[in-house]
Structure formats: structure tokens, C-alpha cells
Amino acid sequence: MLQFMVEKLNQQLHTHGMISDIVLRSDHSLLEESEGQEVLITFSEAEDEKQPTATIHLFSLAEEDSCEIEVEINYPYSLQDEEIQQLWTQAKSLVAECSLTEKRRFVEPGKQAEANVVLDYHFVVQMPRTEAEEIAFTEIMARFSADLGMLVKKKAQE
Description:
alpha+beta
């Protein structure tokens, strides 16, 4: 399922930005006899460290033959309150169930060392089994890719 998802996302995402990294992570529990796999896809509009970057986490849910897609978009620059509100409004119009976290790190009172905003959301997709399910799945992936492309733009209001 994970390879299938990477192929489908690669087909859709390239028209909205660029994938800069794909990592397969495997975890083996020391307490339980289980092993899990996760794919991390790094996506942005362009290769620039001051650019918003999305990390797409893909988790295979084997018992349901489905995949959980979790997205974290990091805006690595300081945003004014009105810009954060615009970003939040735009994100909510695209993805109804998302959350926004603002993080500021100070090295001393009044001296900010770091500021960023993280927008995150997740959803589950099923492996398509019929032609109708394949069409619906392709539409979901196209919509997801277009929405993500808008959310990783340099400015939220663009």
C-alpha cells in the first residue's frame, strides 16, 4: 500500500511543487512482536530553506488495507497575527479539520530566536478495488495535491 501511495502522490504532486525527499522508516517494537513502516515525503513549492515545507507521513493500516496520510506544513518564518489569521482562514477553507500551532523560542526576555507556524491535518484512504473506487481515489489525490500546493506557497494570501 505504501509503494502504491508514493506512486500516486508522485504523479499528482509534481504539478504543484517539488518532492525533495522520500524516506522509508521501519520501526521494530522491543516490547511487542510488531514492526511498522512509515514513508515520509518532503514537499515544497521550490527548494528554499525559507520556503514553507510539508512533510507527508504515510502509515499503512494493514488490517483495513488502507493508508493514513498525515500532513505537517512548517512555515519557518515569523508571521504577523493578521497573516496567521489569513493562513488559518485559507487552510480551514481547504481542509475543514486541521490545526495550527504557533511556536516562538526566546533566548532571553524580549529576544526572539525562532518563530514558526505549523499547520497539520490527516485523513485515511482505502485501496481502490473497483473502477469507480479508482476514479474516486484519483479525485481525492488530485484535490489533496492541489490543496497542499496552495498551502505551501510563500505567502498564505497568494
